[in-house]
């Protein structure tokens, strides 16, 4: 009798090679040969006894008493139509298909349990960034590099964050009080000489916070500039950061031992853009970091680190790598007719050499491949679409928690919303607005500049103020808009308040006290204020772009057979009329459909915007990064 023997062990190579022979295995009661091989024989050797169909040799497992035989079942013509599983225990009985299916299901269940118990590989992760909260922060970049590393460390990874040690000679410098000098000095060869760089270190919340120290980081202002504009030596300052970050895993014995060469670097924005270039051009040709990988995280593509081409020699890179950073401005962007438009673009070099590329939302990952959102790099990013992904940022749910926020007048939760109206009354009282709990209160928090769509708000306010609403704004930026806010407040004393500047407690109170948060941004890589708003039951009305489109679902009262869905409103195109239409629709829902409004609030509050959720997606990309070989040429 022709038979197929199944023994405990691994799949024999000879069997896989023989799979091309013309054998037809038909399923019996949905339990076929393919399924049996796929499930039961993941850890089994398949061997054939003497076969009339020919060609296959025979072999036996040493542990024959544990083996089974698949006996051929034939039709009236003698053709094989399937197999029966025959026990080799000595009784000669044939197991029923139901018994086999049960045994396979049990083994599959056990296998799945083992897979679930298996934790993802623990990695040595090195974040490189110009800012990391709470040590330095000007926006979302600081939030990401101050929160995500802590979550990844809590998930078992060894995590280092490398950023500059900014000293502004003010009280804010106390954030570095616990950072100790490691007494490790290195020479960074760039800008025509050897620059002396040292390191400070603080171990906090499971993360190694490493600060690169150099006199160029010691000056008043913010990480990038001061009241007079951007610092003229930013290329020098962030070139130092990148060189030092590449050396840190090799020379810093943190916790008694170094991170070593097998690291995963996360280079954030152009300030860290030289890291993947250095790995490919300076280290891997000499066998160093050959097993390391580098992810480029783009938080804002508008900033690319572009400088004149003559400055390439300052980077400390081999001359043959100029092409990776080469950049030529289009004719319309050149200063004059004789200008060749030649430049170096640090972010472009990072896009070319990074092993994978991430943006801070899926929508932004698509936008950067378009002419409108690519800022001249859309074609390059489109060519790397296979390694381009987007992961929405998380928020610190302990800091932004309406049930425990120390900055707001009353606490509330998704189960008890009664405290929100108290927060609204307290905000109206604090800002000197008429106390009207039932009047829709609209808020805006953000920079007063073109990107945030502040010009649309300016054009729309006269028309919006004709409605029975109140409007509150918090922000600073363009002096033109700051003055406009002051003038508008004097014109609409009972309806409008503008707070010039930024104040953390006030931002919390506006987020908790308003009914609607307006975000008409022209582009928004991710956006955090809409996430804060939903966490606090404040309904966002946003322009449908980037991360705003990803995170805010437009309210639909007719979804799923009349069951509401949605967490706010999005509008498009970006115009005053479409924005006003969305605002008025939200206001009408607030006034006339209280149950629907409460549903919108609760769905937003229940949304999972935690960094733990984002970290899971990051870990998946980390795995993908190690599948392919690193960039070496």
TrEMBL record:
Q: Which domain of life is it from?
A: Eukaryota
Q: What protein name applies here?
A: Uncharacterized protein
């Amino acid at each position: 009798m022709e038979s197929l023997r199944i023994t405990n062990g691994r799949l024999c190579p000879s069997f896989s090679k023989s799979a091309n022979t013309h054998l037809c295995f038909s399923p019996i009661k949905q339990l076929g040969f393919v399924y049996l091989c796929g499930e039961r024989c993941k850890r089994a050797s398949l061997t054939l006894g003497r076969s009339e169909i020919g060609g296959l040799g025979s072999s036996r497992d040493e542990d024959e008493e544990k083996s089974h035989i698949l006996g051929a079942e034939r039709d009236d013509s003698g053709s094989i139509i399937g197999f029966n599983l025959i026990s080799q225990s000595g009784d000669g009985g044939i197991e029923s298909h139901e018994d086999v299916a049960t045994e396979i299901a049990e083994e599959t269940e056990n296998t799945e349990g083992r897979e679930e118990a298996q934790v993802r590989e623990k990695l040595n992760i090195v974040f490189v960034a110009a800012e990391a909260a709470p040590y330095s922060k000007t926006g979302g970049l600081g939030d990401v590099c101050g929160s995500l590393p802590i979550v990844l460390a809590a998930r078992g990874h060894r995590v280092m964050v490398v950023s500059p040690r900014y000293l502004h000679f003010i009280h804010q410098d106390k954030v570095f009080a616990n950072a100790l000098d490691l007494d490790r000095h290195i020479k960074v060869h760039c800008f025509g000489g050897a620059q002396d760089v040292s390191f400070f270190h603080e171990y906090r919340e499971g993360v190694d916070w490493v600060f690169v120290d150099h006199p160029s980081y010691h000056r008043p202002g913010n990480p990038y500039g001061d009241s007079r504009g951007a610092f003229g030596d930013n290329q020098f300052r962030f070139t130092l950061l990148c060189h030092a970050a590449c050396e840190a895993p090799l020379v810093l014995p943190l916790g008694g031992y170094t991170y070593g060469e097998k690291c995963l670097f996360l280079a954030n924005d152009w300030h860290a853009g030289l890291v993947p270039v250095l790995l490919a051009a300076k280290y891997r040709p000499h066998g160093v970091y050959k097993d390391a990988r580098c992810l480029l995280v783009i938080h804002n593509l508008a900033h690319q680190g572009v400088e004149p081409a003559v400055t390439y020699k300052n980077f400390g890179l081999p001359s043959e790598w100029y092409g990776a950073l080469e950049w030529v401005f289009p004719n319309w962007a050149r200063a004059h007719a004789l200008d060749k438009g030649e430049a170096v673009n640090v972010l472009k070099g990072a896009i070319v050499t990074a092993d994978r590329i991430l943006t801070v939302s899926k929508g932004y990952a698509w936008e950067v491949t378009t002419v409108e959102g690519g800022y001249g790099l859309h074609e390059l990013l489109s060519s790397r679409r296979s390694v381009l992904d987007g992961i929405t940022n998380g928020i610190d749910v302990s800091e932004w928690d309406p049930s425990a926020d120390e900055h707001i007048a009353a606490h509330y939760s998704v189960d008890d919303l009664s405290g929100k109206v108290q927060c609204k009354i307290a905000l109206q009282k604090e800002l000197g607005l008429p106390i009207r709990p039932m009047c829709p209160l609209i808020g805006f928090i953000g920079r007063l500049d073109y990107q945030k769509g502040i010009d649309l708000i300016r054009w729309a306010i006269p028309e919006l103020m004709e409605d029975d609403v109140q409007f509150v704004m918090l922000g600073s930026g363009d002096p033109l808009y700051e003055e406009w806010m002051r003038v508008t407040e004097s014109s609409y004393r009972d309806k409008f308040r503008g707070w010039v500047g930024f104040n953390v407690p006030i931002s919390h109170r506006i987020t908790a006290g308003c009914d609607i948060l307006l975000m008409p941004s022209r582009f928004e890589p991710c956006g955090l204020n809409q996430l804060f708003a939903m966490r606090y039951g404040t309904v966002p009305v946003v322009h449908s772009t980037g991360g705003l489109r990803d995170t805010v679902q437009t309210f639909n009262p007719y979804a799923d057979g009349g069951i509401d869905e949605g967490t706010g409103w999005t509008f498009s195109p970006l115009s005053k009329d479409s924005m006003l239409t969305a605002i008025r629709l939200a206001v009408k829902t607030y006034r006339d459909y209280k149950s629907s409004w409460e549903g919108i609030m609760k769905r937003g509050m229940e949304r999972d915007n935690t960094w733990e959720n984002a970290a899971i997606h990051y870990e998946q990309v980390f795995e993908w990064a190690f599948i392919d070989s690193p960039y070496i040429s």
